[in-house]
Specification:
Layout (H helix, E strand, L loop, with lengths): L8 H4 L3 E5 L8 H11 L5 E5 L5 E2 L2 E2 L9
Length: 69
């Protein structure tokens, strides 16, 4: 018997994440939030959003939350 997906599956297992304010500053909460995902091998697409950085943890950073593919 197969059970359908729970409505919270997309929240707990997202296919991509964007972190607004992702930073290389080790005193920043978002440094740990984004960095942990990167270091632990998150398999989805990651979008760090920071207007003052070209990349965060080696991943291209975006200047605003208006990300286009």
């Amino acid at each position: 018997m197969q059970i359908g997906k729970h409505f919270l599956d997309a929240f707990f297992n997202p296919s991509s994440i964007a972190v607004v304010g992702a930073s290389q500053n080790s005193f920043s909460l978002n440094f740990n939030l984004f960095g942990n995902q990167a270091r632990l091998g998150y398999q989805g697409d990651m979008y760090p959003v920071n207007p003052n950085a070209s990349e965060v943890f080696g991943i291209k950073a975006y200047r605003s939350r208006g990300i286009s593919r």
